[in-house]
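The record is passed on directly below:
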Amino acid sequence: MRRLSLRGVIRGKSVSTSESAKARPCPLDRVNRQFHAARHAARAETIKGLYKAEMIHRRSWRNREQMELPRLDWAHGYKHTRLLASIRHVPPAQAGAAS
């Protein structure tokens, strides 16, 4: 995205919590952490953020019942019409059926 000068959804002011020191080596991981679960959680958080940005914050809803059908429509579109370059520009549902 950076190469194409694109930015994702920004919620509020950007905050920098640390600065990278490229000249210094990174410390070793002394507790031998496994990041498999963290990646899964990060993916879930990304999808949740995308849903909130596209569905919740773009419209005003009077109640939960009013957004039920549009929510189901968004979920169907996310699974069946979204094209991903990493899977040959086909929807996730079609790529899953082919494998």
